[in-house]
Every structure is written in C-alpha cells, then in structure tokens.
Amino acid sequence: MKTTRAYIQSGRAENAIATRARILAAAQELFLEKAFEDVTLAAVAKASGVSHQTVLNHFESKAGVVLGVAEALATQTDHARNAARPGDIGGAIAALVTEYERIGDANVRWAMSGDRFPELAAQMDVARAGHRTWLAAMFGDRLPTESPEREHVLDALHAATDVYVWKLLRRDLGRDRAETEKTMADLVVGVLRGIPK
C-alpha cells in the first residue's frame, strides 16, 4: 500500500506534469500568434496562470520554452502528415497544407528570425530535416537509388513543398486552399516526372 508520503509525492509529480503541459500549451498559442521576439517569459507565465519563476523552474529559459514548443509541434505535425499514404501525392499535399494552414505563418516568422536567434535556427534545421525525411517516406519508391541524383530530387521536392511556397500562394498571391494544394501537387508531379527511368 502507498504511504501518505507516497501519495503526496505522486500528487506533486502529477501537478508538475499538468503545470508543464499548461505552460507549453500557452506558449504554443503565443508563438503561433506572435513573432518570436514579441513572446516573453512573463507573457507565457501570465497566459498559463503561473509565476515567471514557475516557467523558469520548468524550462530554465526562453530557449527551453522554445525547445518544448518545437518538440510538441513536431509531434503534432508528424502525426498529421503521416496520416497520408506513401505514394499518394494528393493526400500528402493535403496533409501538408493542413499543417501549413495551422502553423505556416509561425513557421515563416520563425525562419525569418532564425538568423538573429540561434535557438530558432537550430529548431528550423531540425524541422527541415524532418520535412526531408517525410518527403523520402512519402515518395521513396519513386526516388532514384543513386545518391547524387536522389539528393537532387529530394531538394526539388523540398523546394516544391516548402512553407514559403505555401506562403507565396496563400498569403502573397491570395490563392484559396484548393488552388494552393493543386499547384503544390503539380510541382511535385513535375519533379517526379522529370526523374530518368
């Protein structure tokens, strides 16, 4: 049987986990809405209903909060994108655009701030590597097997599906979601058709 002390420790551990999750959820909302430099630890604390010191106790710094948010977003994004079946171009692009609709504006802001904030640059590198891994999983059976040509095709697929293409179509040119998906799918088809047999 658990002792009173064990129940207290268990309750504290559960409270700490719940507090950490609340801080991450609040921070994620703030980072999705605002520029990186406009999100402060004080704002994260206020949005999550805890003290500034509590945020520091859980994450040590703004960089720690960013890392936690980036990991949570990566998990959510991986889950959403991997719902598409490998080889299904339309399904893959629909899953990708769904994520860009949710977090694309924040991705662009983070990428643009990366040269000023090393913690962001590191997270953007991780995100780009994850995107490339996803592309290889989605279209691997149609990629060349030889390394230089395979890398070239992955580069082209990455360029065709990058968040900046979504931003260009949706935000700069004002295309609707269906047009955006069609254009990105057409770009992917063009890349894959250009692979020598």
Query: pLDDT average, as an integer?
Result: 90
List the total number of helices.
9
Please estimate the helix content.
over 70%
How far from one another are the termini?
A: 68 Å
Total domains: 2
Helix-strand topology string:
HHHHHHHHH
List low-confidence stretches.
none
Radius of gyration: 20 Å
* Strand runs, count: 0
State the secondary-structure class: mainly alpha
What general outline do the C-alpha atoms trace?
A: elongated
Report the β-strand fraction as a percent range: under 5%
How would you sum up the major sheet?
none
Please provide a written account of the structure.
This protein has 197 residues and is mainly alpha-helical. The chain has two domains: 1-60, Homeodomain-like (Arc Repressor Mutant, subunit A, Orthogonal Bundle), CATH 1.10.10.60; 63-197. Helix content is 79%, strand content 0%. The protein is built from nine helices and no strands. Helix 5 runs antiparallel to helix 6 (118-139), helix 6 (118-139) crosses helix 7 (147-161) and helix 8 runs antiparallel to helix 9. It is elongated. The relative contact order is 0.10.
Which helices and strands appear, and what pairs or packs with what?
Blueprint: H1 4-33, H2 41-48, H3 52-59, H4 62-81, H5 89-113, H6 118-139, H7 147-161, H8 163-172, H9 177-193
Helix pairs in contact: 1-2, 1-4, 2-3, 4-6, 5-6, 5-8, 5-9, 6-7, 7-9, 8-9
Descriptors for this entry?
Arc Repressor Mutant, subunit A; 197 residues; elongated; 9 helices; mainly alpha
Quick recap:
It comes from Nocardia aurea. The protein is mainly α. It is built from nine helices and no strands.
